[in-house]
Design brief:
mainly alpha
């Protein structure tokens, strides 16, 4: 429906237009509630993950840094959010290809030298 009728407000406004304003109101509050629960959990998970490699910095510092990055990206607008998402997905794809190539190299080394890991 978003591709058929791209209006400001996204799926929440589409619910208002095609169903009922009450559904749109409820979806808006559910969306807000979802992100007030999910964002702190994601920030905590990111801090724990970063702390796995760098234990000298407190987790709260990583949470503040990640929150600042999220707020900065959201203030840039939808076009920049799309660009950042595209760059992130490109890096992720390159990382997966790198891991696949390295695993193939390790497999070939393992076969030629008869290493047992």
């Amino acid at each position: 429906m978003i591709a058929f009728l791209p209006i400001p407000g996204g799926h929440i406004k589409l619910a208002e237009r095609f169903f009922d304003p009450a559904l749109s109101f409820t979806m808006g509050w559910n969306y807000w509630y979802n992100w007030t629960i999910i964002l702190p959990a994601e920030l905590s998970a990111a801090a724990v993950l970063i702390n796995f490699w760098n234990t000298s910095v407190n987790n709260s510092a990583w949470i503040v840094i990640c929150l600042a990055v999220v707020v900065f990206i959201n203030f840039l607008g939808a076009g920049m959010c799309t660009f950042v998402d595209h760059c992130r997905n490109t890096l992720l794809t390159l990382w997966v290809v790198r891991c696949l190539r390295r695993s193939r190299i390790h497999l070939c080394i393992d076969q030629s030298h008869h290493y047992s890991w």
